[in-house]
Design brief:
By secondary structure, this protein is an alpha/beta fold. The protein is built from twelve helices and nine strands. Strand 1 and strand 2 form a beta hairpin.
Amino acid sequence: MTQEKLLVTLEEGVRRITFNRPERRNSIDFETFELFRDAVVEAGRDPETRVVVLTGAGDSFSAGADLSAVAERGTDIASFDVSAHLREHTTPAILAMRQSPKPFVARVHGPCVGIGFSYALACDVVVASREATFGQGFIRIGLMPDGGSTFLLPQLIGARKAFELMATGEQISAEEALRLGVVNRVVALEELDAAVEQLVRALASAAQPALGKLKAALSAQSITALTDALEFEAEGQQACFHSPDFLEGVTAFMQKRKPVFGKGRGRRESAAQGD
């Protein structure tokens, strides 16, 4: 794969998909979005794959979307169709993970943020090290959550707590994620691989038709709602993406400062009032 941004291996029925940009904390650039979509779709179709493991190289699971890649677009941001991007790359990936009969396991260590968190939420099981942190950081750059997280997170922790985490962008520890039901198990970092391996082997050796039907039964009532949420996110993110607040959020991130939202809106309102 190009520049090895995403590593995919298959051994003894276990397909491992690894975000491989450790120098960028495994942030997801435009190419990686496409690679990841193709990888999870292929995993669901492959008869040799019995279980899928998602993880990240280095010290992070994923720090979310690569804002430097967005910033590099410069003036192209104004014409970028983020709704089409989400429909083409993110929506198929999330639906493939939820509709696949194969179980998806997230092995999380270090930051799991933004779209990275959304990918983890779409998994069937999440095993984390004590060093893992989780956050819906979209709001901090002027965006709404996407990747199906507006549906998946409230399902796990309730609407009020989900709103709090999403509206503040607060990051929570692995232990707090366990308490809330976001993750299944938290272990010491040195025990993480053994814990994941034990679970993966149990899933890989299970009766696959029964496992697939079990997963389908648990998600049968929610796929339509998830699909609707993904479409709502695609539409809503378009409005956010082209707002002055998002441009300010990206600029502030690149300049390593706190964003000041609302400045562009205030200038437009003053102009409209003839001030």
